[in-house]
Amino acid sequence: MGDGSLLDLTPFLRAHRLPAEFYRRDAAEVARDLLGAILVRGERDGVTAGFIVEVEAYYGGTDPASHAFGGRTPRNDPMFRDGGHAYVYFVYGNHFMLNVVTGREGAPSAVLLRALEPAAGFSRMRRRRGGVTDRRLTNGPGRLARALGIDRSHNGMALTGDALYISAPYSRRAAIARSGRIGVARGGERALRFCAQDSPFVSRSA
DNA sequence: GTAGGGATACACT
DNA sequence: GTGTATCCCTACT
To answer: In this structure, are strands A193-196 and A46-59 parallel, antiparallel, or unpaired?
Structure first.
């Protein structure tokens, strides 16, 4: 594998890949259960990956902060699909956001991945992030997408393949902090943000 | 603190 | 078809 690793971790990560059923549940439950799992971007000649340390749940018709609040559109269409797909969108003219779609077909909900603790593929992430300190490689939703090379081409992709998936080989982190969501104009008062309490890799302290 | 950047959705011709 | 307000942010000062 690339990045000078002596071991190829790919078979191990794949062996613990979360199945589609994991995602076909309530978004807040999925969000909480994703903390401590590993987001894996499989590339032709290696992987980039990180432990998930910060997430936010978004619902559809009942959640004014959600893209799906106003009904199904071409942009938010992946949110309406069955759980276990990626929803990637572009904001502020600069950044891609990676969400995992949750729940069942026709009932929109998703979990935004907001921060990772880098785990594999460091040199590749450093190159993509242009020389920032390792602490800042993936501590924000736009930053983690950049570090892992995630873009529009991943929108709608199934999370059950080898290109993009989440692996959960270890038991969950014990200490979870819960708070309001970040950057949302309306609906932010709901406590739908979850993060690993003591991680230095969260995007900001709540 | 704030400038920047581009896609999207929806209101209007 | 065109105008424009908004957007789940980041990198700078």
So the answer is: antiparallel
Cα A122 to its chain centre, rounded Å, is 18
Q: Say whether the CB atom of A141 is under 7 angstroms from strand C.
A: yes
Structure tokens at A3: 């990045």
Q: Which of residues 45-84 of A touch strand B (CB under 7 A)?
A: 70-71, 73-76
Among candidate residues A54, A122, A109, A118, the one with its CA nearest the CA of residue A80: A109
Hey, is A114 helix, strand or coil?
strand
Q: Which residues lie below 8 Å from residue A108, measured CB to CB, with a gap of 6+?
A: A59, A60, A61, A66, A68, A72, A76, A79, A80
Q: Which residue matches tokens 């992430």?
A: A125
Bases in strand B with any atom closer than 7 Å to a protein CB: 4-10
| Max intra-chain CA distance, chain A | 49
Euclidean distance between CA atoms A73 and A138, whole angstroms = 29
Tens-digit pLDDT profile for residues A83-142 = 999 999 999 999 999 999 999 999 999 999 999 999 999 999 999 999 899 999 999 999
Q: Which amino acid is at A76?
A: N
Read off the pTM: 0.93
Residue A31 exposure: Cα atoms within 13 Å on the Cβ side: 27
